[in-house]
Design a protein that fits this description.
Blueprint: E1 5-9, E2 20-23, E3 26-30, E4 45-50, E5 55-63, H1 68-80, E6 85-89, E7 93-96, H2 98-114, E8 117-121, H3 125-134
Length: 149
């Protein structure tokens, strides 16, 4: 994020840090990698797509108790539309809790029982760690990222 500007209100008379260029009551600060944690999180969303081989769902944000039902609905809708190969692309997640883990396990079990394919595209370390700690990384089908996604 180097070079990204964010407007920050500072009252007059308060000295700004050296990395700040004063512009009256609003300063433009150059954010560092450490400052990125201060930015508000991107709202949760599910990107979807289809190609000849599969339908894919890519949740973006945090997969947890609050958002798992949205992912569940999107997967269920794709399955109801006759998709025989579903790919859950986890690369857009910043975080996943046990609710997300249960969702993945439930869909993996349903695929085995109902005869369709379900696979995941591994995500960032904090997400992959959930699968490793529970041993699920050895039981799930892993797919390559969808073309162009």
């Amino acid at each position: 994020m180097p070079g990204m500007c964010v407007s920050v209100y500072e009252p007059r008379g308060v000295s700004a840090p050296e990395r700040t260029r004063s512009r009256g009551r609003v300063d433009c600060r150059i954010l560092t990698d450490l400052d990125s944690a201060l930015l508000p999180p991107e709202p949760f969303r599910c990107d979807t797509g289809r190609d000849d081989a599969a339908a894919w769902v890519r949740p973006v944000g945090e997969l947890d108790l609050d958002t798992a039902t949205e992912v569940e609905k999107v997967l269920a809708d794709m399955r109801a539309d006759g998709c025989d190969r579903l790919v859950l692309d986890l690369r857009g997640l910043r975080f996943m809790d046990s609710t997300g883990l249960r969702l993945v396990i439930r869909w993996d079990n349903a695929a085995k029982e109902d005869g369709f394919e379900f696979a995941i595209v591994p995500g960032v370390e904090v997400v992959d760690r959930v699968f490793r700690l529970t041993g699920m990384d050895e039981h799930l089908t892993v797919a390559d990222p969808p073309a162009g996604a």
